[in-house]
Amino acid sequence: MLRSAAIALAAVATVTLAACNSGSTPAPAPAPVETSTAPAPSEAETPGTPVSATEADFSITLDNSDLAAGETTFAVTNDGPSTHEFVVLQTDDAPDALPVANGAVDESAPSITANLGEIEEITTGSSKDLTVTLDAGKYVVICNIPGHYEAGMHAGLTVA
Ligand SMILES: [Cu+2]
């Protein structure tokens, strides 16, 4: 009695499966499970000397401020909470004594020798890289969003 019931159930199941498959093309084989051990994509190349810069309201912290001349890649992380930018200026002025006009550093002032490059709009929580070539000299990195430099967003660099 039980055995025949089981057979009957099995028969129903078979019919149901057949009905499901009838008239439809066979389902594609499942994609093979990825088992390869291929290496993960390599990290983005960072030419030259790597320098980590961390920005926050309102500071810039560098992990290395004595650099050898040549290519340098700043990896800038914004810990926020505000959006910041990152500007590399060559100047002999002290980091906290750059010329300011209208709340921002006057990058065209005579004491600013050069603007080596900048990253704009680094949103909070994000990171961006900037690669520049630095000659021997003194540099100041700043955020030049109005008010941010004067609030403390500057750090000095010496390149030899
Ligand atoms: Cu800022």
Can you offer a commentary on this structure?
- This protein is mostly beta strands.
- It has one helix and eleven strands; from the N terminus they run H-E-E-E-E-E-E-E-E-E-E-E.
- The strands form three sheets. Strands 3-11-10-5-8 form a five-stranded mixed sheet, with no helix packed on it. It has a four-stranded mixed sheet with strand order 2-1-4-9, with no helix packed on it. The chain has a two-stranded antiparallel ribbon with strand order 6-7.
- A hairpin with a 2-residue loop joins strand 6 (100-101) and strand 7.
- The N and C termini lie far apart (94 Å).
- The structure holds copper (II) ion.
- Residues 82, 84, 143, 145, 148, 153 line the site of copper (II) ion.
Helical coverage, percent range: 10-25%
Give a short account of the largest sheet: 5 strands, mixed
Q: What is the count of helical runs?
A: 1
Taken in chain order, the helices and strands follow as HEEEEEEEEEEE
Strand content: 35-45%
The radius of gyration computed from the alpha-carbon positions, rounded to a whole number of angstroms, is 30 Å
Distance between the termini: 94 Å
